[in-house]
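Human:
If only I could read backbone structure tokens as easily as an amino acid sequence. I am handing you a single protein, as its sequence and its fold in token form. I hope you can help me see how the letters and the tokens relate. Thank you; the sequence and its tokens follow:
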Amino acid sequence: MLTPELLHALRNLPLAAKQAAEGFLAGHHLSRRRGAGMEFSQYRPYQPGDDLRRLDWRLAARSDRYYIRESEVDTSLTVHLLLDASASMNHRDDNGLTKLDYARLLLAALAYLAQQQGDAVSLSVLHPGGLLHLPARADARQLPRLYQALQHATGEGRFPAASQLAPLLARRQRALTVCVSDLYEEQSEINTLLTRLRAVAGDVLVLHLMAGNELSFSYRGAVTFQDLETGQTLQLDAEQQRSAYQQQIQEWLHTTAQAARRQGFDYYQLSTAEPLDGALREFLRRRQATSF
């Protein structure tokens, strides 16, 4: 299993995405429904209105009964990938990766997985300037477009205002929206966007990205912390504050997860210190449920 730091060290986002995702393709994680596809599944009795081209005439001649050949066809859907590119995503973990580095790898792998499933994939990079949006496509040139946009994404400023994100809410097409964010917000701006997206497009999967050193508070001695979005600083003794911090961060994570699920989002917490497989597995689980 490749660690995120090894994937990042490749310095090749398309290759890293392929390496991270291909292990999940071995089991052919395809969503299926019965229909008029190519792979035979079962027979069922003919009913008025059925397509006669699917009627098995040989079986009818032998049994004097009419049966329809049902098959399984691969289904596809639209997957909207959202990247929080606010400045807090520049926080760096002890393994050298920033949250934004990890998010790039994860979204590239998700895009690769989705395309292998035949899905149309879009990408929206959310930054203070507003919105960089690549509309959903399923053609062979979409992945290079997405990779290029991810490679050039930089973390800066605060999460964009709602007025700047209006184009995301204009569509009415059902889709699976996947948002990668650390969920640091001032006035519920991220939650508001996801709530509106769920109303207009359906399922929302929130991949809550935290740095390993945020979760463990691995700092030592006197430390000066700076808010990457406001510039405010705070000096403290790490040993004295560790216990209180860890309690508060766990309470916040618990409250955040509860609130997300209460609002109908699928929620999954992940760490920049962990491999991508948990998030990829969660995406495939959610995708399969959405396809039916």
